[in-house]
Amino acid sequence: MSKKIFSGVQPTGNLHLGNYLGAIKNFVELNNDKQNDCIFCVVDLHAITVKQDRDQLKNNIRETAATFIASGIDPAKSIIFNQSKVQAHSEGSWMLSCIAPMGWLNRMTQFKEKAGKDKEKASVGLYIYPILMASDILLYDTTHVPVGEDQKQHLELTRDIAQKFNKDFNCADFLKVPEPLIKKNFSRIMSLKDGSKKMSKSDPSDLSRINLTDSKDQIVNKIKRAKTDSFPIPNEEQKLNGRPEAENLLGIYSSISNQSMEKTLSQFGGKNFSDFKAQLAEILSNKISPISDEIKKLLNDKQYLDKALLEGARKAEEIAGKKIEEIKRIIGF
Ligand code: AMP
Ligand code: TRP
Asked: Is the separation of the CB atoms in 249 and 228 below 8 Å?
């Protein structure tokens, strides 16, 4: 059976190796399978849940779309668009926010992390962010959602909202309950400076992440300076327990070279980190540099990018517009 795939990435700049290995690399694999219908969305409405600079937001929307295409997503095969161009996302979000109880939202750990200590000052948008995400997914009868580990809870909420809608309005199976597609291994890439924190766009230290726009020299330098420990690389996975930085770097190597951790350990077990780091930097720059070059090339052709996004929005609108009309009819409008 063909899968209906939907996923989104926020245009908040600094797309990094965590986004690539946790999400975008999987998008490309799904795009390449002829059986799948894929939609990849630049979720600009999500981005404004925290303050954005207008010009930067515009650039970041193009840069995120360019990153999708440069990584190997074909806009002729998959739909690529930005969320704010399709009204149904906002409309659906309102209607679903009248279905979802506050108690469910109060459990969301990402809100707690992002809002920080002073929750009273966080925007209401940041609080209801997962409902907009549910709207994104449910408008397209999505069957599968590829994301990194950090989005698991939001997907569970999406499933709960779909089921509650179907029950409240007595319309079994109307909203399709989607399955998460989260890679078992390496779905959470950690900071290069602190193995207990996830690699993040908003980390103030640029040395904590490999950006998809980094040059070869920057990648080599960042890997050289990445935190490790003073023990050699072990031969067995179990021995990585309690060594988060070592585990992260070896995980990155395994993920980028599409091999198991076991294989990586058999290659490097017993060696010290300097040999390993040189090889890691090499394989990373071999994979990332062509993407980075292509992003730059695409960003010089704004007309092409804008046209691709507009064409994607037209196709998305056709699907989501129909679904939102059905939702309205079911509600009683
Ligand atoms: P965001 O940048 O928050 O819009 O995230 C876009 C996608 O990248 C989502 O599927 C996230 O789960 C994934 N992602 C973000 N950071 C990481 C990370 N450090 N490791 C793995 N996946 C990540
Ligand atoms: N919340 C997701 C993130 O920050 C982005 C997102 C928005 C998304 N809508 C989505 C992901 C729909 C998958 C499906 O990573």
From this structure: yes
Q: Which CATH architecture has domain 206-297?
A: Orthogonal Bundle (1.10)
Taking the centre of ligand 1 as the mean of its atom positions, its distance from the CA of residue 325, in whole angstroms, is 32
> Is the minimum distance from the CB of 212 to ligand 1 under 6 angstroms?
no
What separation, in Å, do the N-terminal and C-terminal C-alpha atoms of the chain show?
34
Confidence of residue 91 (pLDDT cuts 50, 70, 90): very high
Q: pTM higher than 0.85 for the full model?
A: yes
Q: Is the CB of 22 under 6 A from ligand 1?
A: yes
pLDDT greater than 80 at residue 114? yes
- Return d(Cα 101, Cα 116) in angstroms, integer: 22
Q: Are 245 and 229 in contact (CB under 8 A)?
A: yes
Ligand 2 centroid to Cα of residue 9, in Å, is 6
Taking the C-alpha atoms of residue 81 and residue 311, their distance in angstroms, rounded to an integer, is 8
Can you give the residue ranges of every domain in the chain? 3-186+302-331, 206-297
The answer, yes or no, to whether any atom of ligand 1 lies below 6 A from the CB of 38, is no
Across the beta sheet with 179-181, what order do the strands follow? 79-82, 37-42, 4-9, 144-146, 179-181
Tokens standing for residue 204: 């103030």
Question: 3-186+302-331: which CATH topology?
Answer: Rossmann fold (3.40.50)
